[in-house]
Amino acid sequence: MTHYQLTENLFDDVKEEPTRAGFGRGLKAAGETNEAIVALCADLTESTQMHLFRQAFPQRFIEMGIAEQNMVTVASGMARAGKIPFTSSYAAFSPGRNYEQIRTTIALNNQPVKIIGSHAGVSVGPDGATHQMLEDIALMRVLPNMVVIAPGDSIEAAKATHAIAANGKPSYLRLAREKTPIFSTEESPFEIGKAYILWEGHDVTLLGTGTMTYQLLKAAKLLQEKGIYVEVVHVPTIKPLDDETILASIRKTGRAVSAEEAQIKGGFGGAIAELLSEKLPTPLLRIGMEDRFGESGKPDELLDYFGLTGEKMAERIAEFVSATPKYHQGF
Amino acid sequence: MESPLTISQLEQKASDIRRDIITMLEAASSGHSAGPLGLADIFTALYFNILNINPKEPEWTERDVFFLSNGHCVPVQYAAMAERGFFDVKELVTLRKFGSRLQGHPEREKLPGLENTSGPLGSGVSQASGYAYTMQYIDNINHRWVYFVTGDGELDEGNIWEAAMFAGKYKLGNLIGFIDRNNIQIDGSTEEVMPLEDLRGKWESFGWHVQEIDGHNIESVIDAASMARAITNKPSIIIAHTIPGKGVDFMEYDYHWHGVAPNSDQAKEALKKLRTLNGKISHEGEGV
Fold first, then answer.
1. Cβ separation of A69 and B159 shorter than 8 Å?
2. A16-181 architecture in CATH?
3. Measured distance CA(B200)–CA(A99) in Å, rounded
4. Does A58 touch chain B (CB under 8 A)?
5. Which tens digit of pLDDT belongs to each residue from A247-295?
6. Which chain B residue shows the shortest CA-CA distance from A101?
């Protein structure tokens, strides 16, 4: 097992930054070494942090206007001409608005276009349900050829940006608007298709994707104080899923929890349920949005209301552990 | 190409392509008849005169690129490609069959020489625009051209107009499109289903150079493409007026033939009655 270097002050005065900021830095840096990278944005260049790339490489940045369908199909044509196009908007619009174009001209056409969906999840806050994309994981992970990544923090978002620039495949990167804690370090590993054990334990495996992984770490600490020893596995790549690491942990603990800021049906929790029911039937608690839309409010208020904070998660996990025997090997 | 074909040789080639289309569709017993037959003259002009391509080297880096937007019309592209030497004409009858490289709608990765995957309508103009933009603004290539064909019913799609705005804004002078203006779509006449006129005015107002031609006059098709290449400060659209089902009497103008293939008796009849552009019946049911 690769040792995962967590940041030193994980629970106290942890540094915060939005994952989209890491993407913006990563794209500019990737653009410096790879001239094939081009960037397209649908009138949200600062919001998606593509303005850093635009400032550095104005000739390789294309303003698309509010036209997400055209953005991804133009990108498909640019990929045919040898480029590595990064397209960005809010996840509610891309892949929300232009799913068929992504399916046909990028996934089936197998072109290395990168779809950057920013402002995903309820933590978008006051904009409300229309802008809080919750179905993108479900939509994108079922597309053949597509790679799906939800980075855990801004440092990892930069690494993921470099990785998808180099993978030669259609790829989806899910980003968040709000500042979130940076739990990893520059030295922490990131590889597409790998999950990482951040916290070791034996009572239950907590699988987190995106920024929910930090909340699981908080839950882990609270649960430890109650005598429940959890294992936290960070799963930034939702497709392809690191079956091996996930199953090895669950074989040890005998219980599983998934956490995401998205619909659990079809989402990350859906992916975990598929994996476990086929390979290792295990009691599973899925934390996330439960078949409903979000609504307006402050980000923290909404995360609390929907049970997506470390404190709320710790309560549910404690209940789950006490009510659910470990059983997986007798099946 | 060594020496370009004469107009009468091209007209003969268009008849060969029509014969191929009927034979392919009958063998597939599904597919679209009217559009491909109506586009045969434009595809003959493209593949035998206009496009600078090398059938022996489909990925030739100096080639012109062609994007088909209305993927359901791909039988005419397959036939033109085979006649041009991209693959053996014998393969045409595998259209739509299991294991074939000739998918019902074109898939780039299946068949060398295809530039894009299409079928769901409205995306081809954008894909062509992305390629054209890359050459014009990023790679500074000014001796290659990007062509596309779109249907007219397809212009109902919003994605088309997003692309039209984009190519107009960036004055993509290396982009040349043909609209197959045959006035039909599945539910009936385009002007009844969702009126497109003033079509010329629409494209002009989006910043495109517009020409209107008889899409069955091969010389006009070639001339319009030359004119379009001479217009370097804006994208070009050529509204090609065509007759759906052109060449087969009982299919012409009839929208019912949009989405169906001829059965064996109908195909025999069609091949017997297949007319050249001069109105001559030139074939006696000769298959692929």
1. yes
2. 3-Layer(aba) Sandwich (3.40)
3. 30
4. no
5. 999 999 999 999 999 999 999 999 999 999 999 999 999 999 999 999 9
6. B123
